[in-house]
Amino acid sequence: MDTNSPSLKSDMFTIHNQRILKGRNVPARRSGSGWFETLLNSHTNISSNGEIFQILERSNISAIKQTLDRVYNLDFYTSAAKNECTAAVGLKWMLNQGLMDNYDDIVEYFNRRGIFAIFIFRRNLLRQMVSRIANDFDRNLKQLNGTHKSHVHTIEEAELLARFKPKINATDLVSKLDSTNAYITAAIEKMKRIPHFVVYYEDELGQ
Fold first, then answer.
1. Range of the domain at 63
2. What is the Cα–Cα distance from 89 to 17, expressed in whole angstroms?
3. What is the pTM of this model?
4. Domain annotation covers residue 76
5. Beta strand pairing status for 115-121 and 10-16?
């Protein structure tokens, strides 16, 4: 299975426990992880450094561990850093950003450093697919004054982007949704050896 397929991307938030809670946010793409991370960072004592694994930082397992060390040794400075006492620190990590390719080494690292994961998914995979297609469309068209926004902040922006009505091939729709569900299930199975819990976007919105 091609784990780089846009429909199969997932994220995760990680957190570590040495007095400071260390964690990782692992969501699926367009799963509401941006909203969830904003919620975390609204807390005075929580710092989530966002999606930091670019191509260089995930080029091999050594680079991945060096990046994680910077985060969990509190040597990674971003706008998420707090002036108050830090109770939890973490990052957002897409499943296809080297995580699933190196999961044995990463599981060992997480367990050694006391890190737990928050998997973030959507129950409605069809809505997630539509959101992904619409996001990719805007990335190319840049409808908001020539800029692309993955997350809108006003009703006007939301209404403008909602004008796009994607066309979906119904012939292979079910197989794509089944593949996405299978990928998510496999990811949780592979990472179950570390402390974790699963969050569904729709459930959190209902709270």
1. 8-121+192-205
2. 9
3. 0.74
4. yes
5. antiparallel
